[in-house]
Amino acid sequence: MESSLRVLNLVTNTDARFFNEQVRVLGERGVRGDTLAPPGIHRARDESVTRRSPSDYLRFFPTVLRNSLGEYDLIHANYGLTAPMALAQPRLPVVLSLWGSDLLGEYGWLSKRCARHCDAVIVMSEEMAAELDCDCHVIPHGINLSRFAPMSKSIARDKVGWRRDAKHVLFPYPPTREIKDFPRAERVVAAAAERVEGQVELQSVFGVEHDEMSNYYNAADALLLPSKSEGSPNSVKEAMACNLPVVTTDVGDVRDRLSDVTPSHVCRSDAELVAGLVDVLSDPRQSNGRENVRDISLERMGERIRGVYQTVI
Predict the structure, then answer these.
(1) What pLDDT does 287 receive?
(2) How far apart are alpha carbons 306 and 313 in whole angstroms?
């Protein structure tokens, strides 16, 4: 029986599905603790709502400091913007998890500076590791292979209400997520539709229960990910687990992840995205993705993160 650990988690978004999966699977391995988030809104969908300001993060520090005096073994800063508060408390060792945009985006400079002073750093991909000038652990977010599994396409389409006689391209994000580049998805699908027989529909799916997403992966003919930047996108791994072909830009770890998956297309231009989508939609078929995704189960992720915790205490 593994000894129990107590962890103080800092996170920018307490609703992040993969973070909550991480907490749950670690809990099954004897890791207990509490989660704190800064005041304010992490990502405002309504333009009338103000997103977090630097002062929100400054006001967060007294809360972190007060809680760090409790009976915890370590503090786990999830997302780079929480790292300064974790490092400013003087008592607990710090593990930092970088998720992608916090290292490769606007505040990458802050994440890099903080990473040098943490006791351990976790990143999602080798691409992210190459951005750092310190040692780190590459541990992609895991997925639930029991929840995400192949099923009948016709049954899945009936469940989600999609036409059986159309070809469906899944974009599993809100159109307002700029980094996911929905306008590019629209252009690519429109161009591909001109070269494919039958009706082609772009499906932007968001705001549904995570348990239901497997139905959408199985109902689709392709996952389209035209993102500008990623770490280790869960949508690609979940699609692989359902044997859904993936057409994606060359971001994060997708090239390595999809290296043995057919059909799949990792692209550098709109023309390549269109050609990849045409290939998949002209002859709809399953991929062999599931056999290439078994190494990133939630269980394996939990084991590896707990191992990192052990190294710092």
Answers:
(1) 98
(2) 11
Distance CA 187, CA 270 (A): 8
Q: Which residue has the tokens 């985006």?
A: 105
Count of C-beta atoms within a 10 Å radius of residue 183: 10
In the numeric block, which tokens belong to residue 271?
């023309």
Residue 159 CB-half CA count within 13 A: 17
The pLDDT tens digits for 44-100 are 444 444 578 888 999 999 999 999 999 999 999 999 999 999 999 999 999 999 998
Peptide bond between residue 263 and the one before it cis (omega within 30 degrees of 0):
yes
Q: Are 242 and 216 in contact (CB under 8 A)?
A: no
Query: What is the pLDDT, as a whole number, of residue 2?
Result: 63
The reported pLDDT for the residue numbered 157 is 98
